[in-house]
Amino acid sequence: MKYFILKEIVNYLSINTQNIKSIRRIDNNLIIIEFNNKNILYVDISKSNSIIFKHNKILSSKKDFNAPFDVILQKRFNNSKIESIELYNDDKIVNIKVSSSSSYKKQITILQLEFTGKYTNIIVLDENRVVLEALRHIDEFSSSRIVKVGHKLDEVPKQNFIPKIEKIEDIESYLYQVYEQKEKENLENLKKQKISQIDKKAKKLKSTIEDLPKKEDLEKESNELYEKANLILSNLHNIKPYQKSLKVYNYQGIEVELDLEAKQSASKYSNDLFKKAKRTKQKASNISLEKDNLTQKLEYLLRLISSIKNATSLEECEFLLPKKERNQTKTKKSQTCEIFFFEGYKILLGTSQRENIYLLENSKASDFWFHLKDRPSCHVIVQNTKKEIPQSVIIQAATLCAKFSVDFSGTYEVDYTQRRNVKIQSGANVLYNPYTTIVIKF
């Protein structure tokens, strides 16, 4: 953060705060400080972008932090009285000096927030500026400025320049804007990252679709293999052992030369050709279905990109494409549908006819099923063991159903009911009753 902003923050805190009610870490580099009158401040000490901000809601902790730093932080500053707040050494270092009467004598502790580039850190000091704990410990092998428990803290080398001073009319409003800007930047970066991931998959899938053989070519190949096998079979008496080729007249009366497999008998070779012809014919009959399934998968990825582009929060982005855990095993190849998690519920989305059929056949009677009203759409299943699911989950599942079934935003009706009320007619075609309809707009 810039010098003049920190100066304004220090002035604001000096006027408006007298006590620290509580302080704790809620993310790796983020602490929350609650002063008197429920005045809450967040300090993000990330090296790349260290900031102080305010938020309309209380940000929750991603996990419990119980390192020695966290223990000392809370022990020394919870329910403490603020003695002074200043910019230490007239640099980008905020010092909050507090006193605590929890022991038999007055105990002075300093919270030093350093916004100084490579020295960015949160350090807890005693009244003699000896390090009690720090977010980042730095030994003599890493830097000439040591940050180590029990070691008196060296000063941060002062920069030889006069900082630019600007006036902030309302520092409190500014601190709220800092968070909004931070979230906006984080959201845009996350969108770029996730869209890049999906785009790679989409390009690979598009290439696979383009490389699929044509049905007509496969049928032609199958017919040629059948004809070759039949011609060899009908001329076995003319073929000598280890013969490499055979000249015969085909069914159109044209003389052709057929290659033979010298290493095996002609009868076995003709049988192999029949098998290959049968496989090729089967592939020809299935190629359209395979292409349809891959095309539907590609459409899903393109809609996923669109949904992420239109996402308004980090949570929405993570819901649509969750971050993979480091130890998560690769299950994508065997995955038979798209899986989402929301408020503890598992939501399954079918992106093709094959996946829709799978969902219908493998869902339980108590699960909830979603489908666009009176038009083709993907199927959505919310796994459930009770009679009802929360309204928030219904809205989320219905929104997924609509977003991944249509190409344009608008207002759509989505029907939903328990799976026991859905009767399969053929494939993914169903009849259902009773049901409830919800209107989704996006």
UniProtKB/TrEMBL annotation:
Annotated Pfam families: NFACT-R_1, NFACT_N
Residue ranges occupied by any NFACT RNA-binding domain in the UniProt entry: 343-425
Keyword Transmembrane helix tagged: no
Record-linked InterPro entries: NFACT_RNA-bd
Coiled coil: 184-235
Keywords from the named record: Coiled coil
Keyword Ligase carried by entry: no
Name of the protein in its database record: Fibronectin/fibrinogen-binding protein, putative
Organism of origin: Aliarcobacter butzleri (strain RM4018) (Arcobacter butzleri)
